[in-house]
Amino acid sequence: MACTGATGGSKTARWAATEVSWSVTLKTNKFALGVMAAGGLVLAGCSSEIGRVPMLDTDITCLHKQMAGPMFLSFPLAANTCQRMSNGGFVLGESKAKPLPLNLKGAPDLQKLADEYGYTYTR
């Protein structure tokens, strides 16, 4: 019979238990980080205060959302929130970025407001 010493187990068994515990902890941490990142993206993409939802909103839908409740923004504030920039929204190159004209094809009500406030748009 082998002597296990005062620790209560062989070194090999303790090392194996530690190794399994470490790999489970590592997998759990990666999963938790992935869930937090996905949740952050979902929350950021769904917040109406941010402006357009990436790849889903057009200029027209973004403006209508911003001017409707619960915020009821004026056209200039809604346009500034929804307007895209020539740098694609990246921080790098922000000093050279210029606002792109709003695409208001098929929205005569928004075209009238854009004319009234001096915003450029495509007809």
Write up this protein:
The chain has 123 residues and is mainly alpha-helical. It has 2 domains: 36 residues; 64 residues, no CATH class. It is 51% helix and 3% strand. The protein is built from 4 helices and 2 strands. Strands 1-2 form a two-stranded parallel ribbon. Helix 4 links the parallel strand 1 and strand 2. Helix 2 packs across helix 3. It starts with 10 loop residues before the first helix and ends with a strand. The mean pLDDT is 77.
Read across the widest sheet, the strand sequence of neighbours is 1-2
**What is the distance, rounded to the nearest whole angstrom, between the alpha carbons of the first and last residues?**
90 Å
Number of helices: 4
Give helix % range: 40-55%
Shape label: elongated
Number of structural domains? 2
Q: Tell me the fraction of residues in β-strands, as a range.
A: under 5%
Unreliable parts: none
Largest β-sheet summary: 2 strands, parallel
Radius of gyration: 27 Å
Total count of strands: 2
**Structural class, from secondary structure content?**
mainly alpha
Layout of strands and helices, then pairs:
Blueprint: H1 11-46, H2 59-67, H3 75-82, E1 102-103, H4 108-117, E2 121-122
Parallel strand pairs: 1-2
Helix pairs in contact: 2-3
